[in-house]
Amino acid sequence: MKVNGTPTRTIWRAEDGAGVEIIDQTKLPHAFVTTRLETLDDAARAIKDMLVRGAPLIGATAAYGMALAMRADSSDEALTAAHDQLYATRPTAVNLRWALADMKRVLSPLSPSQRENAAWLRAAELCDEDVAINEAIGDHGLDLFGEAWEKKGKTGTLNALTHCNAGWLATVDWGTALAPIYKAHDAGLPVHVWVDETRPRSQGASLTAWELNQHGVPHTVIVDNVGGHLMQHGMVDLCIVGTDRTTAAGDVCNKIGTYLKALAAHDNGVPFYVALPSPTIDWSIKDGLKDIPIEERSGEEVSVITGRTESGEVVSVTITPEGSPCGNWGFDVTPARYVTALVTERGVCRATEEGLKSLFPDVAGN
Ligand code: MRU
């Protein structure tokens, strides 16, 4: 995607080959800042402190983190330690486990002297694959937007609602849930996006809105509790969100609050689509409520909000009384029965074990 007209990815190897460049997403939307990762610790901190976030980008950063680790020490011990350190950064997005397992599979059989080069190559490949996967999700999702537009009689505006940020900032490029939105907009469909603010970290208000602005997609930021009201009044034609982990039976774990939107969509007959790259499927589990670890983060993310003053200064303020504890669960699980369909790089399927297996017979259960 483009930033101020310049094609940009969210992560790339630095020109001197000795580091990795990322967009520091904690600075958006107030400033577009790139930062350099030079060590394994830098990569682990970037994931943990959410300079990078979004399931696919967490995986890509971990892959590059392994390359940075191999640059410093390519022994067997260092390989295992790097894997374990990166794996411990965030618990919910399964892409992290997937990318680290892939890197370990490629690097383990090699001699230490071969590992650094192989790690850079494989990390770059994983990034390119992510871009291709997301673009394909965009193409398949575009068909659903086309259907919704037909159903609407091709009049007015096609209103999509999304939660959190599942755009290009959450991936290497294109995004998952936003890829079909970009494709639909570029194809001339009159798409308008309701952007859930997505407290506590406000990924919708600060990242999704920023992305859509950059691409010129009409949108409106709403607070998290508005979606149900809009759906009751026919103001949402479809919902589309991303996922951090999808079970083999189609349960979907995504940013906290996704479940409530799915319930509202179900009650109002609004299609609820989930867009996902196949590395987000955890084939080893079926019951999302029981088997997916839900990240709990600091209560400070709830009590303190950051914003820009009229003079452009970025400041943080506390909004809760002193002494009130805050709870901060990062994700929730939407049971498959509330998901109208899953949009993957291989096509659209029902959110069931059979549906996923029909698209991924070669991977399911392996
Ligand atoms: O906590 P975050 O910002 O990493 O959460 C991101 C999400 O919940 C996204 O919706 C999800 O990773 C899918 S992104 C393609």
TrEMBL record:
Pathway: Amino-acid biosynthesis; L-methionine biosynthesis via salvage pathway; L-methionine from S-methyl-5-thio-alpha-D-ribose 1-phosphate: step 1/6
The keyword Cytoplasm appears for this protein: no
Annotated keywords: Amino-acid biosynthesis, Isomerase, Methionine biosynthesis
Catalytic-site annotation from UniProt: D244
EC number: 5.3.1.23
GO biological process: L-methionine salvage from methylthioadenosine
Site description Transition state stabilizer, residues in chain: C164
Binding site for substrate: R53, G54, A55, R90, Q203, N254, K255
Superkingdom classification of source: Bacteria
Reactions catalysed, as given in the entry: 5-(methylsulfanyl)-alpha-D-ribose 1-phosphate = 5-(methylsulfanyl)-D-ribulose 1-phosphate; 5-deoxy-alpha-D-ribose 1-phosphate = 5-deoxy-D-ribulose 1-phosphate
Any Pfam family: IF-2B
GO molecular function, one term: S-methyl-5-thioribose-1-phosphate isomerase activity
Alphabetized InterPro entries for the sequence: IF-2B-related, IF-M1Pi, IF_2B-like_C, Initiation_fac_2B_a/b/d, M1Pi_N, NagB/RpiA_transferase-like
Family membership noted in the UniProt record: Belongs to the EIF-2B alpha/beta/delta subunits family. MtnA subfamily.
Known function: Catalyzes the interconversion of methylthioribose-1-phosphate (MTR-1-P) into methylthioribulose-1-phosphate (MTRu-1-P). Also catalyzes the interconversion of 5-deoxyribose 1-phosphate and 5-deoxyribulose 1-phosphate. Part of a bifunctional DHAP-shunt salvage pathway for SAM by-products.
NCBIfam families: eIF-2B_rel (TIGR00524), PRK05720.1 (NF004326), salvage_mtnA (TIGR00512)
Name of the featured protein: Methylthioribose-1-phosphate isomerase
Organism: Caenispirillum salinarum AK4
